[in-house]
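Running this now, will post back.
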Amino acid sequence: MDYALIIRQVNDFVWGPVMLAFLVGTGIFLTIRLKFKPWINLPYAVKMIMAKKSNSEGDVTPFQSLMIALSATVGTGNIVGVATAMVLGGPGALVWMWISAAFGLSTKYGESVLAVKYREINSQGEMSGGPMYAMKNGIGGPIGKFLAGLFALFAVCASFGIGNMTQANSISAAFSSSFGVDPALVGAILVILSLVILFKGIHSIGAVSSIVVPVMAAFYVVVALIVIIVNAANLPAGIAEIFSMAFAPDAVAGGVGGSIVASMLTAMRWGVARGVFSNEAGLGSAPIAAAAAKTDHASRQGYVNMTGTFFDTMIICVLTGLVIASSGMLGTIDPATGKAVSGAQMTILAFSTVFGEHARVIVSCSLALFAFSTILGWEYYGEKALEYLCKNHDITVMYRTIFAFITYIGATQTLDLVWDFSDTANGLMAIPNLICLLWLNRDIVNECFDYEERVVVREKKGEKVDLSGEA
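Update: finished.
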């Protein structure tokens, strides 16, 4: 029996049109139910990220919670995923990535609200929350418990794959190709760094993420803007092609798109798939971090965590897309394979138009930082999912050790099968999570408009509102 083929076929279904329609459809439904408040209040949400520390219950500050969520979402998808989408789906995929992220704001808001609303305090005095607790405490009964167990199981599986081995593999591949570093050495370093940070728990992950994520994102944004500015002459043609190929029934790229051929449906499929893969809106992972935040209202943290989708896809992914579109390298054929250059190599080619040989170093270092931060964030997700399943602190400590050592396997082994399996587990998390969002949509709406009336209206007028002392 060809297990690799079976997993690949299951993966194609999980990330196929039905699932993507379910993901985006849920976002559209919630956006309408919430009367577009996540869109209207986006500037307010961004402003709130750096709000003063709350005295409310929680393990980390709202900012640290967002950074943990961003550490897990800002990853290889922002560099590799965008390039792959634009090669396989054409430049127009970038528009569909952006559209899916716009509706993903409401999805991320909704799942984060439920995570805080239904969170619990564990035996260690830490907050435990996320979709599994929303299912157990919100939906309740046998159905809620079944969905919760299913979600937690898929989350643990995904943490070892998409959150660990595939990221470690990306780091070792980047350092091996750019600097000739032995993958075994990279793996050993990853194990040591992971053990040091992870064994101090959520506070350590939050502290490291709140430094690494802003620094790495700022660095990448600056170098991307430099490329876009230097190649500004190509930008109008690149943007025109992005929009024309996003909505054309059958389109062939012109000058900046090289030999890329893609229909609107292909652009939509790859844009939505890579967008969701990058920002994780609807998958249910980020709300686990949201539940750890010190906040006076579920909706406040919902807005803060919602900005993760904005920063991840609407800024970082779009910048990668504009770098590629303005470089004139899209559609370049690799003479060794006869196929269009894709993935990290495409992004390196685009950056090389300005930075030359240094482009490989820039992209490799960015990829390594993004991927390592993803390992940290996903360890927390996996740990909380396992904690839900086992309720035993000793097992979660053991999980941290195993998780750290598995980075070595990821760094030193070929992972085609692991990529497909982890991609599938990641996608399967979305099914119970989306069912939960639709089932509890009234809770999300009530929290949203309660917060709008009691806090947003007043804070937009300049008041400082803290509900932590209220019942």
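The chain has a mean pLDDT of 83. More later if anyone needs it.
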